[in-house]
Design goal:
The chain is an alpha/beta fold. Helix content is 51%, strand content 6%. Strands 2-3-1-4-5 form a five-stranded parallel β-sheet, sandwiched between helices. The protein is globular, with a radius of gyration of 22 Å.
Length: 362
């Protein structure tokens, strides 16, 4: 790795432009948005989601935890929080910095195991040594460590600001604004049927362990909160439609750049896809209109009826019309079978499932 000269490092981004927080319901195109934003000449972003700003209560001590069991149940963020807490209590600054760097430069799925085994790459260890040489390290908690690492990596890449992508960022906006009062937030939202198709077909453990109803509940929460945040913070919270971004990328990216007060960079149109659950897209550049149409041929009539009935209010507010057919004698029995299978998967009675659906709609 190329060595760097001494550079100014400061907390809370005072030597950098205000950070950008990318967010949205899972499988709504947050990764695509991140790669697009990171292609801008002035913006640095991390490899994957950091999940650093989530609300985690009652974090147990490491000695009282079965971390392998948490990882087997795809509770990666909770496992990571336990490790952060352990390093904070022990005032183990080196381990805390390495833990933060690991999640920035790897993925949340593999980071806890890397930390537990201390299987840090040479790149991470070299960055730690560079930080010790060129920065005044005054780390109190994971937020200090994050800000130090984010600022350092951004300046090292000769960028002017950084962007963090996590689905949970929108749910923790108040906490983030206490740390970064001038931060900008960009939420990407998507047709719930497209989200549902991508979510239920994704091979990643977290998505496989989430029920179809859980997927729709998450979409509804994000849709409802996104509307409120845009009203509450009109100068700091921006919403972009997934389908519009794919179909008219230049226009939508111009609007995004105006919002974050950056000049439009044509490189944003030629981002490269990697680590996609749809492997046919890995390695490809730019936007692909086919991404908006997967669900149209892939969802069953029962799935369409299920999704449309629950999401109707927020879906129509976002400009997504009904597509599911009316329930008839021809399709009611497949629908009953689908809901029965869903009851078994969720492990609830039919009445309990109907109550959950009713609550979700409300």
């Amino acid at each position: 790795m190329q060595q760097i000269q001494e550079i100014p490092i400061s907390f809370k981004g005072s030597k950098l432009k205000p950070p950008i927080f990318l967010t949205g319901c899972g499988r709504s195109g947050t990764s695509m948005l991140q790669r697009t934003i990171a292609s801008h000449k002035n913006i640095f972003s991390f490899r994957s989601e950091t999940h650093l700003f989530g609300k985690q209560h009652h974090i147990p001590h490491l000695k009282d935890t079965n971390l392998p069991d948490l990882l087997n149940n795809a509770r990666y963020t909770f496992a990571q929080e336990i490790l952060y807490k352990e390093f904070e209590i022990n005032e183990d600054t080196d381990s805390l910095i390495l833990a933060v760097l690991s999640v920035m430069l790897n993925t949340i799925e593999c980071t806890p195991e890397i930390i537990m085994q201390k299987n840090y790459s040479g790149e991470l260890l070299e960055i730690l040594e560079e930080l010790k040489r060129f920065a005044v390290i005054d780390i109190k908690d994971k937020y200090n460590a994050f800000d130090l690492c984010a600022s350092y990596l951004t300046l090292k890449a000769h960028k002017k600001r950084w962007a963090d992508k996590s689905a949970i960022n929108m749910f923790n906006m108040k906490k983030i604004l206490k740390l970064y009062p001038d931060a900008k937030f960009i939420e990407i939202y998507r047709d719930p049927r497209g989200v549902f198709y991508s979510w239920t077909r994704c091979p990643f453990p977290f998505f496989r362990l989430t029920t179809p109803l859980g997927c729709i509940q998450r979409w509804l929460k994000a849709a409802h909160l996104g509307e409120k945040l845009q009203e509450q913070y009109p100068n700091q919270y921006y919403r972009v439609k997934y389908e519009a971004l794919i179909q008219n990328p230049a226009d939508e990216l111009e609007r995004i750049c105006n919002f974050i007060e950056e000049e439009f960079d044509p490189n944003m149109l030629n981002f490269k896809t990697y680590n996609s659950s749809f492997k046919e897209y890995n390695g490809k550049e730019g936007f692909d209109n086919r991404r908006t149409d997967h669900w149209k041929a892939g969802l069953s009539i029962s799935e369409l009826i299920f999704i449309d009935s629950i999401t109707k209010k927020h879906r129509e507010q976002l400009g997504y019309p009904d597509v599911a057919p009316t329930v008839t004698l021809m399709n009611v029995f497949p629908l009953i079978l689908y809901l029965t299978k869903l009851c078994i998967k969720v492990r609830v009675s039919p009445l309990s499932l109907l109550e959950k659906i009713k609550n979700a709609r409300a």
